[in-house]
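Lab meeting prep.
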Amino acid sequence: MARGKIQIKRIENQTNRQVTYSKRRNGLFKKAHELTVLCDARVSIIMFSSSNKLHEFISPNTTTKEIIDLYQTVSDVDVWSAHYERMQETKRKLLETNRKLRTQIKQRLGECLDELDIQELRSLEEEMENTFKLVRERKFKSLGNQIETTKKKNKSQQDIQKNLIHELELRAEDPHYGLVDNGGDYDSVLGYQIEGSRAYALRYHQNQHHHYPNHALHAPSASDIITFHLLE
């Protein structure tokens, strides 16, 4: 049975269009391979689908660049010249931008000022003054933050000191305040929380009243307090 003639026009259905593209692409590459084997030809095919996906066939023992170079030699057409010129232009612009930036940096360091006229010098001066103003404001803000942090730390230390003094005053009024009978030479313990560590104030007592019953207990003083910091 003879095959019906297919009308050559764009396939509207996207799925059918993709299937047809894949089948005919494979058929084309097969024919290119046959030409390479049967006729010792060098064949290069570059294809892009409707989704810009690249498909390429190149004869064995050659490369796409070699095919293009051979094409330029035979046809006397420079394929790379336009691209090379664009690259050179891009390079020139980048070098010019780099030169200007280096000059601006030097001018802000007080160099290369002879190239500037009076108006450019005024503009540079104004720009430097604005920059100096921003830096100074940032410096004052940073100093202000440091001062506030230091004040908070000092306030915390003052509160701790007041609490310690208050505890000592209470112990002076009542000798048995906070007494811990642990049978050792340290007969009292006071605990305080200090900036992530715990401070213990221990009063050393010589236990003289154990040997001398008639010896009166003396009121504790600041000299009787030994403070230890224990890290947690």
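Slide two material, second protein:
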Amino acid sequence: MQSVRRYATQALRRRLIGRSPPPSAASVHSFTTLTRRTTSGTHCHATFSAPWAATQSRGAKMLGSDVRLGNVILRKGRIYQVIKAQHTQQGRGGATIQVELRDVDTGNKTVERFRTDEAIEKVFVEDKTFTFLYKEGDSIMLMEPETFEQLEVSEELFSKAASYLKEDMAVALHYYDGKPMSASVPTRVTCAVVEAQAHTKGHTVAPQYKRVVLDNGLTIMAPPFVEAGDHIVVNTMDDSYITRA
């Protein structure tokens, strides 16, 4: 029995070595429980406790191509929030993404380029849902849907997505270390078209998109059949047309 227990312990240690961050006291307790249950034949994955799982989810990896506005990332030992992101193509050099980052602690800004296939460490953030009430100056008023408590945040948290805010819309605040770092709106939002360019027939087989102005003031590209007065569904991530509403 001692040899079985020793073998199980050594195997678990090999799996855990090198993981970051170091296990907390709760994690050590989980490890002990795991070792005891493994020696009795219980499958090891069933005995991890919640604190251990939460610790492991903090260092999720994503590709440079997946970096989005509002993401919180770990870079060169510092925590940054992505405040601008633009994809570029550099000939034979391949595609890159240029990002403007804000240091969470100091507020300093810096610009960097990521390869689209580069591994970026995304920092775990907590999402909380709120209801949009109204905008006043540079402030956004939100309401917690269960407690009805109101919260005032800066419009900067939403960045360009603030243009899509509508009364009673469900929005998300993304918290890091107890502080709201960014905010987001639903990916699909219905907007009214207030202006549309006249459609001109061309000789190309592919449909020619045209500029249309939405009721929130944004100008996007839409198919030629879209006219003023139509309601369309827009992808708020890249301001692109999806379909007619």
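Talking points for slide two:
The chain has a mean pLDDT of 76.
The CA atoms of residues 192 and 215 lie 5 Å apart.
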